[in-house]
Amino acid sequence: MGRETLGELEHQALLAVLRLGDDAYTAPIVMELEERTGRSATLASAYIVLRRLEEKGLVASELRDSEGTRDRRYFRVTPEGVARLRDARAAYERLWDGLDALREPGT
What we know:
The protein is mainly alpha-helical and about 110 residues long. The protein is about 50% helix and about 10% strand.
């Protein structure tokens, strides 16, 4: 791999941003994380991890006017972020290789 690995929350946040597309700002990202992982998340923790991902060049953000409310910072995954996710997925798949007995029935 050669690159720094993703932390669990970083990995999950990148996937949530990808799923949300153009609607990826902090509140929907938190909702996506909670819905998909079953774990609670806070706006502060999500924002911190998103800013860290931005510092690493894995996401980019822009402040947009939100008509009648405060401006919102929207995030998108960069090509480097997509590459890092692909690396992580390949690494997990290699780790799972040969452990079919542990997989859920029907998968």
